[in-house]
Amino acid sequence: MQIRPYTPIDAVKCREIFISNVPKYFDAEEIAKLDTWMNAVDTDTVPYSTAESVHFYILELKGEIIGAAGFYIVKGENDAQLNWGMVHADFQHKGYGKLLYDYRVNKIKELGRRPTLWTSQHTYKFYEKLGMKVESVTPNGFGYGFDKYVMIEAPRPS
Q1: Most CB atoms within 10 A, among 32, 72, 75, 152?
Q2: How far is it, in rounded angstroms, from Cα 47 to Cα 65?
Q3: pLDDT of residue 82
Q4: How far is Cα 99 from Cα 62, in angstroms, rounded to an integer?
Q5: Measuring CA to CA, which residue among 89, 82, 47, 83 is closest to residue 67?
Q6: Which residues are CB-neighbours of 70 under 8 A, at least 6 positions away?
Q7: What is the Cα–Cα distance from 143 to 37, expressed in whole angstroms?
Q8: Model pTM score
């Protein structure tokens, strides 16, 4: 198993992984946003006005791409926003999502930033188990039937 930086030749497989998670975890209309994200990574630009830099990684198992996940550094803040964390539906519930989460959080902390996240009602409990806490919820914030959960890293007990 290996986690490596995304390259443009990974785009087709990333779309397949995304599609394997529709409609359970993603709205089909979000694929255009994923394409915008991957194009920004390909061209070393930023996809959002709030982004300072973007990072995207691929998870391979025995040479097969089974997951992808990224984050961006929030411009002018101490935060890094986790995004596009996805594991192909055929490989879920085997610890790969946690592996991608831990990898990104470690990268974020190496950069001296605090992990933040927007997710849905379908995955927020997964992130709570990993140490994130819900700050706010916006019904239908990602589209009809997909509530937007804003999460931050929960403070660790002293």
Answers
A1: 72
A2: 23
A3: 97
A4: 16
A5: 89
A6: 6, 37, 41, 54, 55, 56, 57, 82, 83, 84, 85, 104
A7: 18
A8: 0.92
List all residues 6 or more positions away from 24 whose beta carbon is below 8 Å from its beta carbon.
89, 122
Do the beta carbons of residue 54 and residue 72 sit within 8 Å? yes
CA dist 104 and 73 (Å) reads 12
- What are the tens digits of pLDDT across the range 77-106? 999 999 999 999 999 999 999 999 999 999
In whole angstroms, give the CA distance from residue 86 to residue 69: 6
Does the domain spanning 2-114 belong to CATH 3.40.50.1950? no
Domain ranges of the chain: 2-114
Q: CA-CA distance, 44 to 47, in Å (whole number)?
A: 10
pLDDT value at residue 81: 97
C-alpha 131/C-alpha 4 separation (Å) is 24
Is there a cis peptide before residue 23, judged by omega within 30 degrees of 0? Answer: yes
